[in-house]
């Protein structure tokens, strides 16, 4: 048990540059306490003390702001950073070395008593506010961008962003923990930039055509409709 605690404290120090000492982690990290409470409630849940397990998980939610169902399964060295607003459903499976930020929901999409929550494999990073819904699998060492809504499986070593979640990078072999979520690819922003470029190119083509036909317009008139009568008169000349 103590070896497991030491490994989890070491993982927190590696993933959070603000962690200065072991005593600080013990006193000031709600994610650390939420997992301690969960280990106890999960043990009770598996030994048929389900009401007591739910009560302990409710106390944990009150103290830490993190709601983890006692039935959820967590691996080793999981780090919940900040943690406020995190919700983890009953049939969720979280693997080793997973990093979860505040506001994350690992939720279900059915009322059937089956495996209805996601499986998060080893080394996954889930950005703040992300929602991972349903019985899907997030592959090893994948990254879920901030605010993403993931409804389908994510392959290993991939990056998923957007609403709904889209795979924007696959087979990223680097397993280094990268906390710079602002540098993740953004397909929506890329599409907007592409449209802006096309609009500018089209405006330039319109200017060239107007110059060739001897039509002079001010900058304010370019977006207005061209008088068809003037064009016909120009053609008649």
From TrEMBL:
Entry's localization field: Cytoplasm
Task: Quote the pathway field.
Answer: Amino-acid biosynthesis; L-cysteine biosynthesis; L-cysteine from L-serine: step 1/2
Could you name the Gene Ontology cellular component terms for this entry?
A: cytoplasm
Looking up InterPro entries in the UniProt record yields: Hexapep (IPR001451), Hexapep_transf_CS (IPR018357), LbH_SAT (IPR045304), Ser_AcTrfase_N_sf (IPR042122), Ser_O-AcTrfase (IPR005881), Serine_acetyltransferase (IPR053376), Trimer_LpxA-like_sf (IPR011004)
Q: Name one GO molecular function term.
A: serine O-acetyltransferase activity
Query: Which keywords annotate this record?
Result: Acyltransferase, Amino-acid biosynthesis, Cysteine biosynthesis, Cytoplasm, Repeat, Transferase
Q: Which reaction does it catalyse?
A: L-serine + acetyl-CoA = O-acetyl-L-serine + CoA
State its Enzyme Commission number(s). Answer: 2.3.1.30
Concerning CDD domains, the annotation shows: LbH_SAT (cd03354)
Q: Does the keyword Ribonucleoprotein apply?
A: no
Q: Name one Pfam family in it.
A: Hexapep
Principal location: cytoplasm
Q: Does this entry carry the keyword GTP-binding?
A: no
Tell me, which GO biological process terms does this entry list? cysteine biosynthetic process from serine
Family, as annotated = Belongs to the transferase hexapeptide repeat family.
PANTHER family in UniProt: SERINE ACETYLTRANSFERASE (PTHR42811)
Name of the protein this chain belongs to? Serine acetyltransferase
């Amino acid at each position: 048990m103590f070896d497991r605690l030491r490994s989890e404290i070491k993982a927190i120090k590696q993933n959070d540059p603000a962690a200065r000492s072991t005593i600080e982690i013990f006193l000031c990290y709600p994610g650390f306490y939420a997992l301690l409470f969960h280990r106890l409630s999960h043990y009770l849940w598996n030994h048929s003390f389900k009401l007591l397990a739910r009560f302990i998980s409710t106390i944990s939610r009150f103290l830490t702001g993190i709601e983890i169902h006692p039935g959820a399964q967590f691996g080793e060295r999981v780090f919940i950073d900040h943690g406020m607003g995190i919700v983890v459903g009953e049939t969720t499976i979280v693997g080793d070395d997973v990093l979860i930020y505040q506001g994350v929901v690992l939720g279900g999409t059915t009322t059937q008593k089956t495996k209805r929550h996601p499986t998060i494999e080893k080394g996954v990073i889930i950005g703040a506010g992300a929602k991972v819904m349903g019985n899907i699998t997030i592959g090893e060492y994948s990254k879920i961008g901030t605010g993403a809504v993931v409804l389908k499986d994510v392959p290993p070593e991939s990056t998923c962003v957007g609403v709904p979640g889209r795979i924007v990078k696959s087979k990223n072999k680097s397993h280094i923990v990268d906390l710079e979520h602002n540098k993740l690819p953004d397909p929506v922003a890329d599409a907007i930039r592409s449209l802006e470029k096309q609009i500018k190119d089209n405006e330039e083509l319109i200017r060239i055509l107007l110059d060739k036909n001897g039509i002079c317009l001010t900058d304010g008139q370019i977006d207005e409709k061209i008088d068809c009568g003037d064009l016909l008169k120009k053609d008649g000349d």
